[in-house]
Each structure stands twice: as structure tokens, then as C-alpha cells.
Amino acid sequence: MFILPALIFVAVFLIYPFFSIFAMSFTNQTLVGAGAANTQFIGLDNYAELFNFDRWMRRGELGYSLLLTAQFVIGSALIGQAGLGMLLATLFHNRKGLLRETIFTIAIAAWLIPDVVVAFGWFAYLAPDGTLNAFLNTLGIQGQDWLFDYPMISIIAFNTWRGTAFSMLLFSSALGSIPPSQLETADVIGANAWQKFRDILLPQLSRYILTDLLLITLWTFNTFTPFLLTGGGPTFQTDLISIYTYRTGLQFFQFGKGSAIAVVVMIINLLLAGVYLTLSQSRRRA
Fold it and tell me: How far from 99 is each of 88, 89, 92, 95, 244, CA to CA, in Å?
């Protein structure tokens, strides 16, 4: 009886929608047109259309969207957020002062501020007459239309700045659990900063690294925030899988095809989680 409310919540808002989407993916259901008036079971036609390899890698298709998403995840999550978060946590480990508090405050604020507010701020920052170009012009450097000329780099930088705080806080907490005597001993024997990081800090951070990579990979893979900056453009150059799903199902109202994309995304999420969990279990046994 105590867990019944939670079970009802999970059933209504997670289990039922999942099976509804799965069933809908085998239909031609739409909001308007013939599919709305006469929804029919069409089997695997939606999946066959998504995995039509004759146009798989064309812009605006599933394959191209998955490729862009992979670039985005590697750039902003694995390299950007995890790398920058570990760097900041390591640099300011066991240090106090105004610089540390300022950087940590800015990173946490970027993580906590609502998506729409952050997106509008970055849009103003990257606009042709925005803050970044104004700063570059004062240095005698020609500004760019960053969101048009370098859209993928722009959203990678945006998402890295947005999400680094989680990795930074996770690694800071993990570093705090390492006995100071280990680093003090390394100082006595003359180890440099790289040797201390490689031989002392990194081995003890390994299980936290896997946890961090699992979470930020899933979050970044499914994030929709870049849509607020680019709308998936220009010419589908930032058409991430989340934006592709939204565009198909909720912009063009192709509910059946959009549901099929959602099922594919769910399977990819499960595979990513399975890979990281398998690696984690293997490391624990070792």
C-alpha cells in the first residue's frame, strides 16, 4: 500500500505512454489528412521508411540526424563537459579563494538557469551584432555569423558551458574522498602534477568517470535545448535526433512515424546504458 501511489504514477505516466507509442509506431496516424480520419495498421512501413538506405544519409533523414547527434554527444558531453568538469575539479582541488568560488558559481548558475533564458542569452552572444563579435572587433578580428557559419560548433560550445557543472561537482566530491596523505606523500617524493593525477587521482576516479559519462551521454543525446538556438538549421546542420523527432511528430503531425523514431531513440538509449553498465560491472569484478 505504501508503494501503490508510486506504482500508479509510473504506470500512468511511463508504462502506458510507452506501450501507446510502441503501438502507434505501426500505424499511419496523423493529426490531419487521411491518417487522421482513417488510422490504419501498416506494420513495419514506418520503420522501413526510416531505414531506407537509399536516402539514409541525406539531410533531414534519420541517418544524418544520428551522425550529427553522435558528433554533438562526443564534442559537448564526452570531451566538453566531462573533460572540462574534471579539469576544473582537479585544478581547484583543496584550494580556496575568490577565483575558485567565482568559477564554481558561474558554472552552477549556468546549470540552474532555465533553458529558455540561457538560450536567449547565447543567441544574443553569438548574433552577428552580438557580444562575441563586438569583443572580437575591438581586437581587430572580423566577426562571424556563428550560428549560420558554424552551427554545430556553436551548439557544442553552448551545451558544454551549460552542463559542465554536473561533472565538475561530481569529480570535486570524488576528489574530496581521496585521503590527503596520498598526495602529501607524492609531494615528498617529488612527483609532479601530471604524475599525481595519473597515478593517484585518475585510478580512484575511474568509477565516477563511468557514472558521469553514462548520465551526461544520455542527457546530451536527448537534449532539446539547441533547438532554441538554431531550430535544427541552417539546412538541417543541427538537426539532432531530438529535433528530428519533434519535427516529424509535432511539427508535421506524423504521429505514426514520429512514434517509430521515438522507439528507435529508446532502443539506442538502452544500448548506451547497457554498454556503460557492462563496463562498470567488469571494472568492479576486476
Answer: 11, 13, 9, 10, 41
pLDDT, tens only, 114-131: 888 989 999 999 999 999
Task: Provide the whole-model pTM.
Answer: 0.90
- At 43, which amino acid appears? G
Task: Write the CA distances from 156 to 27, 32, 34, 160, 232, integer angstroms.
Answer: 36, 36, 40, 6, 13
Report which of 286, 135, 151, 150 is spatially closest to residue 227, judged by C-alpha positions.
151
Enter the DSSP assignment of 41. Answer: B
Alpha carbon dihedral 163, 167, 168, 169, in 10-degree steps, equals: 100
Q: Do 86 and 166 form a contact (C-beta atoms < 8 A)?
A: no
Q: What phi, psi does 177 have (nearest 5°)?
A: -85, -5
User: 251 φ, ψ to 5°?
Assistant: -100, -40
